[in-house]
Write a structure and sequence with these properties.
There is one protein chain. The chain is built from nine helices and eleven strands. The strands form three sheets. The chain has a six-stranded parallel β-sheet with strand order 6-5-4-7-8-9, with helices on both faces. Helix 9 links the parallel strand 10 and strand 11. Helix 2 packs across helix 8 and helix 5 runs parallel beside helix 6.
């Protein structure tokens, strides 16, 4: 869908200043975080004001700042779906690939919140610090270590991972397939090359009864979005979620913010401040 003019960005946080017909006007003045603001619409959150359907504005707990609330949306809801779509993770062992990324970081935290033991992969020492702060139990540098071998050494089992939350499906498939336990789930929300045509090790996956789940936040079921907003809010209220903010930019620096985020050098979120 194309529009003659687009204001970008889906996520944000702020105060409700007006409501439309049929919406309770007692909501005016409430602090909220937003999701999918620009999805299918021309005007997103890189602006002083944004208009969204009422259910896309979620009450922001008092212990969470606007900057922190603006981090949620796409990454936190993606992480929630990836971690919890296949049921509770209580007592399970989870592998989060790319634990320093914005989705991976929330996935670690939500998995720990749900009672799981969490392995994660990183490629640099500074990423390891971020993953450790998120609560990861075991951190493996995939550039310098054999991930499958390290997991086996730590757990004492060849296939010990109950659920994989994966950032790069095609590239990571040899490892994720090797470590996944029988009846386990590989949940992927990304593959670095969108045109990838992965070759699946069918017999191996068949014998292992592997489930593959793909997650795209925009098209996931509405009940899943509702559950995500409820659980994220509960976790925020409990102080269980922390937000890795890398840099703040002014509204006039939107292009610079995109360039910084896309550079691959920055670990964490780039935020646009509306002042």
């Amino acid at each position: 869908m194309s529009f003659p003019r687009v204001i970008p960005h889906n996520d944000g946080a702020g105060v409700i200043v007006s409501v439309g017909e049929g919406v309770d006007d007692s909501l005016i003045g409430e602090r909220v975080w937003l999701y999918e603001t620009q999805q299918g619409r021309p005007f997103g959150t890189a602006a002083e004001y944004a208009v969204v359907p009422a259910n896309f504005a979620v009450i922001l707990p008092e212990n969470t700042s606007f900057a922190e609330g603006a981090c949620l949306g796409v990454p936190a809801m993606t992480a929630h779906r990836a971690v919890l779509a296949d049921g509770s993770v209580e007592g399970k062992t989870i592998l989060v690939t790319g634990g320093a990324g914005v989705v991976g970081n929330y996935a670690i935290q939500l998995a720990k919140w749900g009672g799981a033991k969490v392995f994660t992969t990183v490629s640099r020492p500074e990423q390891a610090k971020v993953a450790s702060s998120a609560g990861a139990d075991e951190i493996i540098n995939y550039k310098t270590e054999d991930v499958a071998q390290r997991i086996q050494e730590i757990t004492g089992e060849e296939r010990s991972i109950d659920r994989v939350i994966d950032v790069n499906f095609t590239a990571n498939l040899p490892v994720t397939n090797a470590v996944l336990s029988p009846n386990g789930v590989i949940v992927s929300y990304s593959s670095l090359n969108p045109g990838d045509r992965p070759e699946l090790p069918f017999l191996s996956m068949l014998l292992n009864n592997t489930t593959i789940r793909l997650v795209l936040v925009y098209t996931m079921p509405e009940e899943a979005k509702q559950k995500a907003t409820e659980d994220i809010t509960t976790a925020l209220e409990a102080g269980a979620l922390h937000h890795n903010i890398a840099r703040h930019f002014a509204l006039t620096e939107v292009a610079e913010a995109h360039e910084a985020q896309d550079s691959g050098e920055m670990i964490g979120k780039a935020l646009i401040e509306i002042v």
